Amino acid sequence: MDTAGSVSKGCFAFKGKKKVAKLENYLSDDEFGQSVVKRHQVGQDMWTEIDTQIQILQEELNSRIFDDLLTFAADSCSTFTLDNLETSKTMVYREIPTAALVTGVNTPDHGVMFATLVSLLKERVSPLVAILKSKDCQNVKNTISKTLSQMVDNPQLLHDEDEKEEELTQKNLPLTLSTLAQWYKHKFKSKLSPKKRRSKGDDLKHKYPPAIVVLQDFESFLPHVIQDFITIASSYLHQLPIVFVFGIATTISAVHSLLPNAVSSLLCMEKFMAPPSSEYLTMLINQIVMTPEYPFKIGARVFQLLLDIFLYHDFSVLNFVKGFRFSLLDHYLNMPLSHLCCPLKEIHKKVKVMDAEEVETIRQLPSFMRFVEENPASNQPKLLLDEKFAKEAIVDLLEKMHTYHMTLFPVLQCLHKLVCKLPKHPLGKQQREVYSLVLESNIFETDAYKQSMELLRMLAKDELEEMLKQSIDVLMEKDRKAITYLPTDLSLFMDRFNTLDDLIGEEEDKGAEDESSLKVIPKQKNMYELRQTLKEMKKKKKKLSPYEKLRSEIIDYFDSVFRKYLICPKNLPLHEIFYYDAIGTVKKYLNASPRSATQLALSNPQYHLQSINCDEEENLSSAMPDICIVYKLHLECGMFINLYDWLQAFITVISSDAEFDPKNPDQVLQARFIRAVSELQFLGFIMPTKRKTDHVVRLTWGNC
Amino acid sequence: MKARIHILYADQLTWGLSTVFRQAVDIRYQPLYIIDMDSASSEDFETIIDEILEEIPCRQKQISTLVSLFGKRAHCTPGAIFLYGHASTGKSLVVNTLMDKLKLPFVILNCVECYSQRFLYEHILNSLHQTDLFAVNESVSRIKCENMNDFIRLFKQVLSQKGLDKETVYIIMDKAERMRDMESNILPAFLRLQELSSSNVCVILLSEIVWEKFRWGTGFAEPYVLHFPEYKKDELLQILSKGCPTDFPESCYVMYLNLVLSVFHHVCRDLREIQHLVNLNFMKFAEPIRNGEATSKDSKKLWKNIEPHLKKALPTVYLREVSSSQWQRYQAENAGDTEQENTSQNLQGLSHRCHVDLPYYTKYLLIAAYLASYNPAKTDKRFFAKHTGKKTKKISQTAKFRWEASNHVLGPKAFPLDRLMAIFYSIVEGKVAPTANIFMQITSLVSLHMLTLDPRDDQIITPKYKCLVSLDLIKSVARTVNFDVVRYLYDFV
Ligand SMILES: Nc1ncnc2c1ncn2[C@@H]1O[C@H](COP(=O)(O)OP(=O)(O)OP(=O)(O)O)[C@@H](O)[C@H]1O
Ligand SMILES: [Mg+2]
Questions:
Q1: In the predicted model, is pLDDT for residue B309 greater than 60?
Q2: Number of domains making up chain B
Q3: Which of A76, A79, A84, A90 is best to mutate for the B interface (most B CBs within 10 A)?
Q4: Torsions phi, psi of B143, nearest 5?
Q5: What's the B254 CA to ligand 2 centre distance in angstroms?
Q6: CA-based Rg of chain B, rounded to a whole angstrom?
Q7: Which residue among B62, B271, B274, B275 has the greatest number of ligand 1 atoms within 8 angstroms of its CB, and so is best to mutate?
Q8: What residue numbers bound the domain in which A136 lies?
Q9: How many angstroms from the chain centroid is the CA of residue A50?
Q10: How many whole angstroms separate alpha carbon B96 and alpha carbon B408?
Q11: ipTM of the complex
Q12: Residue A703 and residue B358: Cβ atoms within 8 Å?
């Protein structure tokens, strides 16, 4: 018997030993390696700090979402009892309480979300929680066994005296809900005896904790499985207080497309909405990215890319965090001076131990060179030659950077508060949009900024007052000592608002005057004159009203503040140390396009193989690898490719005309051709077909 | 009534007594306490039947038929009884109540649960045997049974062990239509269980479909067939009126039921559903009375109060998207502001169903998939080729008429991945790199059940997809990106 065939088809998985990646294994012993180790530590510390902050944020957010859900789960079964002997088993029971949790389409985040949900449920509601995923539940039996095993093998329930529990799994029980129901009865009804009761269940609200079944990806369950499961569960409702939680990614109507009326009428659903992930992202950006706490910052282009991936591709906060983390690691790996990107209090120490070489690297930084040039001529040589002087300057600059961050964000928030409600949102609706503009260039030089200032100069009184109030609130928030004079100045304006009312009286007469001049308008002959008059009238009006005077004063004040604080970081010296903006790398890793990479490699082999020197891209030459030639030839074909013609073309390219003998092609060439073709098939560009003999089908067109 | 209580064993029993009361099987096993009531028995039996009839109105015929079929405890009943009728016509209710009140020995089992025949056998045997899996003394072990042969042997064994071989034992199979999907010997064997096991057993099958649909193959013993007809409107009223809260005037409650039925009866006759609706809206109905704004006689005022709410609930019949407590909360929230608009808006929010937020490119992918599913492939050129001028009127009206709406009537067609991507690139704004993220979104759309992978073709080399979303949803998605999807749909051009 020929066994080779079966062997070649077998696929055996061996679990290898888990290797723990160590930093040392990846780094060479040379100087570069040494310096990476140094930066690695700083980066790790930074990340740990940020990560804990993210965790805290997530927990806060989740507990807020789930609060209602948890109360629902706890309350829905509070009337359940097994003690009541009169309740016969035939008594008609209600529907199964079901929480439909609409989670949003960001499936990558759901894993974390449900893990938190389950742990919260276990902590606060009931130890009996089972989480089911569609991939584990291909039939009813699996579904039930998953439920059973998660509920029965619960370490939280095992801690007390009787070891019977451990035997339970070994007893080879039938996998049915009736087993579970009996187990439940045995477990919790026995608590009737007061002796046992005290030993456990102190943390449980009810004597009979609900059995909660969480279906994480409800849409993906097979309809007949989930229908049967619900039907079965409902028939045990009198013995087992079951509660369902459906995780629905799209809309609630998914329930109805999966469950017929007969099944859905067994449920009593309550809908819960998780807030959209964009809200979570906003929160995250506010607390992680737009904060002076962490000196590491991502630059304009990377920030925009990460945002784009979020908004255009997946809505996944988890991926955003991953992208952020990647940027951080890459920054600390590749930026030689990034160990200076550290908390404020460590700067002195770090700069002190810098060696001459590092100082020299700093001097090479474009932003530092610009700084040198801006310095008075007397200082320039000192900066470039005197190490001590340079170090002092560096410390100074680094500290300035920190102060810059400290002032940037409150002022930024203030600007956002002012512009977010303007018509047409010239600076965007979200604070991150304003921030992104600041990162890119000096925001006060952009047209959008000027436009918004124009709009602000037309605000009504109550609107402006409201905004002023908000700005003061923003600036007064928690520990923002950096710019204490701002809120005081703004409060002064506020006071003047209040005295403004006295002046209103005078206004009235002037309003009348205006009207009289308005009547003049129709007499104007042409458009130009009309416009002129209108402009003049505007000016006149501006001069007239005290409110308008105050308004323009306020806006001017704001404008000067923004010009002072909202400088683009790119214009600051040493910004390279703090800002990571290697968009190419990030794109390559986070938003890769494998197809384009393959196509580039095939059509342009010299991109990877420097040894080949063919100048023009399009040209075929025999110097190229076979697969590239075959690939280029196939681009010219239609849907079906005749192998023989293809081979001929291949041979023509490879061999010079003199050797060519179409009657008797070289065997080696044929073999090379076949190998190239199968490589192409392996890459998914072609496929054999039964429709035409000696042909293959092309599978790709253009970019897709 | 004076009753003597003996502790008896199976062989000592005198089974001539017709109305011996004993505990139902599912209660923990104890020695049989038989209540011996020679004289009072038959009257007692009558009162119990009356009680049942009282409890379950509108089912006199079915109940009396069943009672006479059951006969006295030791009487031989038909081997199989088949009860059928629409959902919530009281099949389970009648059977369960009879078993319960007459205290007959029975096993009930839901055929949905029986994913293997083993479960079926073992469930019946163990319930009869009252095995306690978690008993403290583990002397009793679970009965194991693999096939029909063993089942019949063990069944007899258990009956005699438990002293049940002198009276009729009932096996109730709910959702019996599922038995047709099990091994082909099971249904015939259960229909003949009495004969095969030569014991006094009666199998009761409950189903929603008629007996004729069960017949296939051979070896079927015909069961006794009993129909549970649907309730008529006045019967519904009679049944529902039993649910009147004790502190509420009955006549007023009946009026309320009348109102509810008048709104819902033409869309829904399912008793359970109507019961749900009745409970859902009752608080609202009773509110003016509780508040003292109206008396229970004030029928016009009450009607005015409740009608808009009922009308609003009409589109959500059967959906069960809202639990009664949540519904009441919504209504309570709305109680503050009396504006009708506000209420309706809130309810809109409650069931706004067509809205799903997708990432930007995913929206375009979905639209492209929809177009690829519902447009014939040969029209792609017409819609998406960049340089051809508008040739919209090329197809003659008659030719178009033949096609009209047919694509949407026929449902979505499968399309290959490259067609999807081609359409995607021609409709999406700006330059989009074909990154891995884009392709991942296709997979995630599949996992959201908005697309489906066609299982027929090779799923790796030439995957084909179908778009599953509705026109309404795609319209609302397209609106969010300002894309006029209808203009690109062949059916609507
Ligand atoms: N005649 C009746 N009197 C009182 N209540 C009734 C009556 N008929 C039905 N019901 C009520 O309707 C509900 C459904 O009844 P039941 O469970 O018996 O329906 P079914 O026929 O078994 O339906 P299914 O085929 O879906 O199992 C019961 O909870 C019961 O309260
Ligand atoms: Mg039933």
A1: yes
A2: 3
A3: A90
A4: -80, 135
A5: 26
A6: 32
A7: B271
A8: 76-157+169-275
A9: 15
A10: 47
A11: 0.82
A12: no
